Amino acid sequence: MQIQIYENILKSNDYLAEENQALFNRESIFAVGILGSPGAGKTTLLERSVAELEKIHLRPAVLVGDLATSRDAERLQQYDIQCAQITTGGACHLEAQQVNKALKDFDLSQIDILFIENVGNLVCPTGFKLGEHLRTVVFSVPEGDEKVIKYPATFQKANCVVLNKIDYLELQEFDIEKPKREAQALNPNIVWLNCSCRTGKGIDEWINYLKISKEKQFNESN
Amino acid sequence: MQIQIYENILKSNDYLAEENQALFNRESIFAVGILGSPGAGKTTLLERSVAELEKIHLRPAVLVGDLATSRDAERLQQYDIQCAQITTGGACHLEAQQVNKALKDFDLSQIDILFIENVGNLVCPTGFKLGEHLRTVVFSVPEGDEKVIKYPATFQKANCVVLNKIDYLELQEFDIEKPKREAQALNPNIVWLNCSCRTGKGIDEWINYLKISKEKQFNESN
């Protein structure tokens, strides 16, 4: 009974996610879902990304999901971008309908890349498509190198992993190859990028990956 | 409709949680729920605790919840304690029924303190009582000092916060007083302990807190 209801919720969410993606396609907006544990560095990655994308003339916008505050949106509003907060009121993940509703206040014609930052949670956002073209898990060194095997569905359903806080590697044991190998075993096409949002290391590769992925999605030539 | 069902699930869970607690009381077992983000250090805190509790002749036991693996239980099985894994099969939190079922394999007469480690998740376990006498949130410095205000329900419903990885304070900005103040505003009775499971700093205070809380719960004199 409980499972049946859950399946129906997921099905109706999937339908709305497809509608979102159709909208993104019509507007040539490349939509990037961002998920990860609390404190993995999702918002910091977006702060870095927004600044770098503007340099290469790709116009970013951000939707941020959070339980209770608008802290993340406030951090991003210092950049000159379209940005909105979705406060879930305690719910543990975003749903496609919330994204659709929040987009109504955006001028979609002025967006090249839309980031959708989920609630900090390595479990629940996994099952809910939002219409994103690309799903990125931000995972950080202090969380420990066992997270891929412990949260397999999240990594299996992602296109890309950004391993953040690699500047912490000197402070703790962490075998980078292990989670990478485990993620590739779950999902052979997964892209793995190492970075430090604090030092800026690896951000270029991430931005380049976004640019190429967008071009591939919309068959854009250089 | 969805909310109604959720309320019914919570109500039936609460009833079973009360049954669990009645069982713990009959057996004079002090039950401690442990929750926190993935990688906050929940299992490491338990490894430290088990070793220290045995020194003061309190017999620990552990139930560990995880999505998919038995890694945490394996880490704890190296200690000579009763320990069982609850694999949730993807579900984002433990429920009282799972705890009740897992306890059937335990010799309860040989336990003084039972730790129940939840799935790594700062959101979902909050709503589900398991029968614990004491609920502890393990929160770690690398997660950043904004987590209390961003995940308020979790801190509001906890008895104690263990701020782990304080040895990372030299590597990053983190204002200890801010989340502590915010947690106390949400919950004036909350106990706040700083520690580093790696260096061992603060573990004594945590063990002492457990000991005193157990004595208070069961009106035990020294």
Low-confidence stretches of chain A: none
Protein chains sharing the most extensive interface: A-B, 35 and 35 residues
Shape of chain A: globular
Structural class determined from secondary elements of chain A: alpha/beta
Report on this structure.
The structure is a homodimer of 222-residue chains. The first copy, chain A, has 222 residues and is of the alpha/beta class. Chain A has one domain (2-217): Rossmann fold (3-Layer(aba) Sandwich). Chain A contains 8 helices and 7 strands; from the N terminus they run H-E-H-E-H-E-H-E-E-H-H-E-H-E-H. Chain A has helices spanning 2-26, 42-55, 71-77, 96-103, 147-150, 152-156, 177-186, 203-217; strands spanning 30-35, 60-66, 82-87, 113-117, 134-140, 160-164, 191-194. A 7-stranded parallel sheet of chain A has the order 3-2-4-1-5-6-7, with helices on both faces. In chain A, helix 1 (2-26) runs parallel beside helix 4 (96-103) and helix 2 (42-55) crosses helix 8. The longest helix of chain A is centred in the first third of the chain and has 25 residues, at 2-26. The mean pLDDT of chain A is 94. Chain A binds chain B through residues 2, 5, 9, 37-39, 66-69, 71, 90, 92, 119-124, 140, 142-144, 146-147, 149-153, 165, 168, 171-172, 198, and chain B through 2, 5, 9, 37-39, 66-69, 71, 90, 92, 119-124, 140, 142-144, 146-147, 149-153, 165, 168, 171-172, 198.
